[in-house]
Write a structure and sequence with these properties.
There is one protein chain. This protein is mainly α. It folds into two domains: 1-46, no CATH class; 50-170, no CATH class. It is 56% helix and 3% strand. The chain is built from eight helices and two strands. Strand 1 (14-16) and strand 2 form a beta hairpin. The termini are far apart.
Length: 172
């Protein structure tokens, strides 16, 4: 096998359109571009790093009546959707719905990519509450609020419904 034409140190094993030959797996991952590599079997869309998106701290939310009110509206929407669906919404679902909302409001996705009709409906439910009850909120404030809620849910969940149980008792 020939050496990778990019690094010239490892064996090239993957056919690459960009390099026009066989490249090693490491170089394949570093030179990958969505527009050129979309049809390639090795291509994977980059994963979004939600923990790197701007966020409020929990103290900032607790110290602001306005932010607490916004947070209560979103958490109330989660509770209402959960009750509407016989309390089947778990913490992983809440995390995914928050990620879809962050995709829309921070990453500016025009289409929501979700294979689950339950999660899509949950996204639409919470998004409608945001549109109605948080209509005047600044875009960055909304993103920062969604991100702190995302972090809180991830921190609280252990077996599946810890966050949902907490918000049912306080915001529900």
């Amino acid at each position: 096998m020939a050496k990778c034409p990019i690094c010239n140190s490892r064996k090239g094993k993957r056919q690459c359109v960009i390099a026009n030959g066989l490249v090693c797996s490491l170089c394949c991952g570093t030179i990958r571009k969505e527009d050129s590599c979309l049809e390639c079997s090795y291509y994977q869309k980059p994963k979004r790093k939600y923990n790197e998106v701007p966020s409020f701290t929990t103290n900032q939310v607790h110290e602001s009546d306005v932010l607490t009110g916004y947070s209560n509206a979103i958490e109330g929407a989660f509770c209402a959707y959960d009750i509407e669906n016989n309390k089947t919404l778990n913490d992983a679902d809440a995390i995914r719905i928050l990620e879809l909302l962050i995709d829309k409001y921070h990453f500016k996705d025009t289409e929501i990519n979700c294979d689950s009709s339950f999660l899509s409906a949950g996204f639409n439910f919470v998004d409608a509450v945001i549109g109605r009850d948080l209509a005047g909120i600044d875009g960055l404030e909304l993103v920062k609020l969604l991100c702190i809620l995302h972090a809180v849910v991830k921190r609280l969940t252990k077996t599946g419904k810890e966050y949902m149980n907490i918000i049912h008792s306080y915001a529900g």
